[in-house]
Amino acid sequence: MRKKIFAVFSVVTFSCLVLFSGCTSKNATTGTLTVMVVDYLTNVPIPNELVYIATSYQNLQNHIWVNSLYTDANGKAFFRDLTPFVMYYDTEHWENYGAIQVYAGIDQTTILYVNTPFVKK
User: In angstroms, rounded to a whole number, what is the distance separating the alpha carbons of residues 107 and 93?
Assistant: First the structure.
């Protein structure tokens, strides 16, 4: 009798593990990127600066952006749910830019040091 109960319990447990194994697991397909804008001369974060991200330098120059956000009080703009790709980033008032590879499931932070004179676009 005990062998039958153990066998039935084992089959039910194994079946549940096979059927419902993916219900709570999350396969990461997107990544996040935090861009921190810092003044090179004073080493002070720049708040309320519009940061753009694009998939190529040409798209960045032609204003074809994936997303744009303003930096917070700490000079950080947080972009989430990004497709793994090389992202180019730039700001509204500075002539500096950068690029970084975004990876799935990884939170990354990059610093954009702006050192050219403030320019109105």
Answer: 26
Strands across the sheet containing 31-39: 76-82, 31-39, 107-114
Per-residue tokens: 104 = 């799935």
Residue 102 Cα distances to 11, 14, 24, 46, angstroms = 43, 37, 25, 23
Residues of the chain with pLDDT under 50: 16-25
- Does this model's pTM top 0.90? no
For 36, phi then psi, to 5°, come to: -105, 125
DSSP conformation class of 24: S
